[in-house]
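so i finally got all the pieces together for this one. its two components total, 311 residues if u count the protein bits. some of the lines might not be protein, just check the labels. i wanna see the whole assembly predicted at once instead of chain by chain like last time, that was a mess tbh
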Amino acid sequence: MHELSLAMDVCRITEENVGTSALGRVTEVGLEVGDRSGVEFGTFEFCLESLLSSPPFRDARARIERTPGDELRVTYVEVEDGDPSD
Amino acid sequence: MAIRRIEVREKVMARNDELAVEVRERLASAGVPCFNLVSSPGSGKTALLERTLLELGDEIRIAVVTGDVQTENDAERLSRYTDRLVQAVVTNGACHMDARQILAALDEVDLAETDLLIVENVGNLVCPASWDLGETAKIVIFSVTEGEDKPLKYPRMFERSDHVVLSKVDLLPYLPFDPDQAIEYARRVNPELEFFLTSSLTGEGMEDWYGFLRRQARSGHGVPA
């Protein structure tokens, strides 16, 4: 069900929480995918990997926790605080 | 290099859900129930609504919003059976409607002069199950020319609905379709489902359907939770 557009919404939520200029320093995005959410897990993971490894991101990864229920949520974002030119 | 974690805990569907809440609040304060009709393409949503508008439209003030990927054909068909505005949402590719579209449609509906709002969703038994439109309840239309096991194949939609209209029952003498089996499968997925067996062509079963709509429209608060 629209796994790519959902993955793009994850990117939007990430940007809203860290700011556009910090997106290249995002290391990990944590998510909960409910087993009754209608999200096809493998496809969603694939879409996230594709988006999070492309600009404006730089090798960010998704950490997905499967949960009971029907919610799909972004739980946290981890950002590297340091010299962005490293 | 320090890693900083930012707690987020935001639902991905949050934006649609917020708009759905707004729709729900506007409808509730006007006392107008809203039914979201969902089905596979060709199950008979529009035919059901044509007959409903024709036979019940003078008694109950029904507002309709249709959704289709392309064309306004359904809205045009329905507009022949009512003097009220029928709004068409053309999604241009999206396979479901969303709450934003319903909220926009509400701006054109005088809720004080409306007893019931019906949304005819895009023909799709998958995606609309996940998009809350702010409706009181979803109603699945499922026809006897489909398989009895439709509910088993599309469980989420049947789980999230309260009622099923089994349509085209005038064709039963020509088909191997077993309505009791279909009802049994559906209740396996959702034991609370209530059924209307109808033919929009002959009128069979339509009185029960109208009775339900009359009760909902009069009560002004839709299906009890």
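The first strand of chain B starts at residue 2 and ends at 11.
DSSP finds eight helices and eight strands in chain B.
anyway lmk what u think
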